Write a sequence for this structure.
């Protein structure tokens, strides 16, 4: 099938959508029937409820037309079957194959022969699993013959935010399940205080700590500086750094097959940093911290959700529906920001990961062919866990002068099961009652004689929920968002898989450090002591 | 002096400002001279550089007119001398007196006689200091006669975000200075997994852990549920909870003078939650973690910065200038979001605290008298530390379709001093070089033949910087932002000191838990198992 790559504003369905601005009043339509019925089923027990979004039958029907006209599932198929979707860097986009085969085999030529992408990723996953099992079984030991008890990931951006958010999300679950194998820590910032702090937390156990150096290119400034800071420390502690460090990198990087590392695991150019959580970038630290089976379950949930994203009907494809509602909110309703609000302390850093995944993918101003676009693309994404956020920025969400669309995430059960009944309800019930109350409060508002106590309502939110946050549901949740971002990129007709906007800062930083800066830049640097 | 309380759009100076929209091209004006000269001096060595903001002599001159016409410093004086600035709740706003006297004594009648506000706050600070010194000196011990080694704050919103951000900011500094007295932890979320996680981290040292229960009203749902969860755990561990818990509350709360607590410390209704970091709410945990002298130094920096906020000239008043530039960006340029970007890992949670301080204060839709307003108020605030953010959401900041004003924060020296030279520069120099490079990249952009590699520039940022992040500079930094938010509230003519927008959610939550919900709310609750 020949794919069109048309700008959003050229789609007939989008023109229809524009005529449907402001059509739905949540106060008028949100009743019990709609709350129960406006729901799409994802994988691994994930539900996407959009009853409190500003849509109706007509808008949903035009969204289906937009999905068809923009060939969203066909473009997704082209992507997972190996088309060069990353036009700027002329690369395939294959992170879906990390968790399973969705279509035809993706084969390509390399200097060492024909490679099957899925085969390569699976081979690396098994290598990581084998290494982790040996560490846990005491077959890989430190110089003194002791087992390793802690693992520290050194990486930044995609090599940090996703793996860190996932480790935090599973820490409590793993402890309760008895699956906690090693403590996981992270060093990311080039600020030397970041590494110093982590080292000093671990100082008593440093001889039993394994470091994972993660850099696809092997040239990331922050990561290499932190590697040397750590190596310097290990050396001063009388330890052999090469016995304490593994690498996750590409096969062509300086870190590959390097005797400085106990082992090396690989990804390739078809895995973008922000989409690498399901590769060895996330796999090494997750497998070491919680065991390879937990990582496998996480991938299983992601793969099941990827299959959901193949559905052509928006009522059956949570990511595609979420993407279309987001585009309606951004380009028809004109909302510039979206908040992600997980009612789960385990997901405390999940919004920070989605902030990268979304803003780095879709914060673009030209289309995938480098042509102009005449509409807004990715919104600002932010969020903190509930109920904490309720006592913080929710004031503005309820009564501020802008409307901010919301995405709530909730679970019926806590991870630990530890709980207490106070005033007739458990903490978990209170958490979920708060979530339900917020959806209603934002949508329906409240009148009051005192103008300061009026809630205008009409503030849209969706709810993604599942029974419990497990490795499977977490994998499905991650894949839902990755695929939502991908579909939005298709709708906006942009390249969601490059990040040219990070280059200029790198170039100017090098100039400053080489003493070659001029004008204002030179002054700013000197003010900061450089 | 009689104060006017006029809406922003009625000010003559604001009408002039509106006519100055889009007047400044950063590419045209940003040179070495401007980079060095556009700077206001704050307290404790803080500098506010606004060279890369879209202002010029004319705009600054109209901003000064706006400051005078809106009587910003006169309103500030009224505030710190005890006027009822919090109109909705009919309360004074006295957090500045926590750190020093700025004007006339604030005296008011209570059932027990005339009270001097500053005297009361100082008495409480000294009581906290005395308690902390006794704990450190081993004069207050656990049941077995052992010293306490860890402290856990139980609180949410203002009782959590500020104190947590400050403890994180000073942890590394204190360790290097030898001022680290006790490990500080925090429990906030009603999600039972939050308390369970912290308890399990501390499980081996639980008998040597002191808990601080923080709730001004003594009725916060989350905090009381977590208190009982912790007490249940202490009881099961065979410990007497009343020997392990202190309270920070108001004198009229159920937690006051209560034998369930080892000691109680007090704040009053004139200290809003989000402005309570410099009260006993922050003071207890900071004094226990790092010693009362560190808390005192922190207050000293804040007080010095408060004095800076009394200056009538915008060129000498960093908070007022920052506030005016923010209003220009929000109401003239039309930017809906502001990012706070500290180049300091120690400030990793400082943006989350400012997110609350700003969005809860200024996310309002009616004026302080309950009348209508016809302009945007508080923007969305978000941020993560640099250089981490560079590898995450900066793509959108550089090349997205919206302009997001930025506030950078930087320090010439790291806190630890631990560092390494790689490729000719230390990590600290790399950190600062990155910061300088970003300011230039955002403002000046870059042309390119490839449209995907074009940076349009013209994206405004300011830079707050100091020699090093110490308790004094941290106090000054906090006060700068608190005062900026206050001045913006004065300009928008709103009440920055209530939070009516959090009430509806509380009411609906109670309905759900009492089984009294109906319609959509009842369905949402049942979907979540409530």
């Amino acid at each position: 099938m020949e794919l069109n790559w048309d700008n959003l504003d050229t789609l007939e369905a989008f023109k229809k959508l524009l005529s449907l601005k402001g059509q739905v009043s949540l106060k008028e339509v949100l009743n019990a029937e709609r709350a129960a019925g406006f729901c799409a089923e994802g994988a691994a027990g994930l539900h996407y409820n959009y009853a409190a979004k500003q849509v109706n039958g007509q808008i949903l029907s035009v969204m289906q037309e937009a999905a068809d006209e923009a060939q969203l599932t066909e473009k997704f198929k082209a992507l997972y079957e190996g088309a060069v979707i990353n036009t700027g860097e002329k690369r395939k986009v294959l992170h879906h194959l990390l968790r399973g085969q969705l279509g035809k085999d993706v084969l390509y030529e390399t200097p060492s022969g024909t490679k099957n992408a899925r085969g390569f990723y699976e081979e690396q996953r098994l290598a990581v699993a084998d290494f982790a099992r040996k560490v846990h079984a005491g077959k890989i030991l430190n110089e003194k013959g002791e087992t390793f008890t802690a693992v520290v990931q050194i990486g930044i951006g995609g090599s940090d935010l996703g793996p860190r958010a996932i480790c935090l999300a599973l820490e409590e679950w793993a402890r309760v399940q008895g699956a906690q194998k090693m403590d996981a820590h992270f060093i990311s910032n080039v600020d030397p205080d970041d590494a110093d702090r982590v080292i000093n937390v671990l100082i008593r156990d440093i001889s039993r700590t394994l470091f994972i150096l993660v850099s696809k290119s092997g040239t990331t400034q922050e990561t290499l500086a932190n590697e040397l800071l750590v190596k310097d420390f290990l050396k001063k502690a009388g330890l052999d750094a090469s016995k304490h460090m593994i690498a996750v990198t590409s096969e062509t990087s300086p870190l590959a097959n390097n005797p400085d590392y106990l082992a090396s695991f690989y990804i390739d150019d078809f895995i973008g940093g922000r989409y690498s959580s399901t590769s060895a970038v996330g796999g090494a630290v997750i497998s070491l911290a919680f065991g390879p089976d937990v990582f496998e379950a996480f991938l299983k949930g992601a793969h099941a959700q990827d299959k959901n994203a193949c559905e052509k009907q928006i009522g059956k494809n949570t990511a595609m529906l979420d993407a279309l509602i987001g585009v309606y909110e951004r380009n028809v309703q004109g909302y510039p920001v979206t908040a992600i609000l997980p009612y789960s302390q385990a997901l405390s850093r999940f919004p920070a990961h989605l902030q990268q995944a979304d803003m780095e993918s879709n914060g673009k101003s030209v289309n995938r062919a480098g042509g102009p676009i005449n509409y807004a693309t990715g919104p600002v994404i932010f969020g903190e866990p509930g109920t904490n956020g309720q006592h913080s920025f929710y004031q503005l969400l309820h009564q501020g002068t802008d409307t901010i669309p919301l995405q709530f995430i909730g679970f019926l059960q806590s991870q630990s099961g530890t709980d207490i009944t106070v005033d007739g309800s458990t903490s978990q019930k209170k958490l979920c009652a708060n979530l339900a109350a917020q959806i209603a409060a934002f949508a329906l508002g409240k009148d009051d004689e005192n103008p300061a106590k009026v809630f205008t309502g009409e503030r849209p939110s969706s709810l993604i929920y599942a029974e419990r946050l497990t490795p499977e549901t977490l994998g499905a949740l991650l894949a839902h968002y990755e695929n939502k971002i991908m579909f939005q990129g298709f709708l906006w007709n942009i390249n969601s898989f490059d990040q040219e906007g990070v280059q200029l800062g790198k170039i100017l930083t090098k100039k400053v450090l080489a003493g070659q800066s001029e004008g204002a830049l030179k002054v700013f640097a000197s003010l900061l002591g450089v």
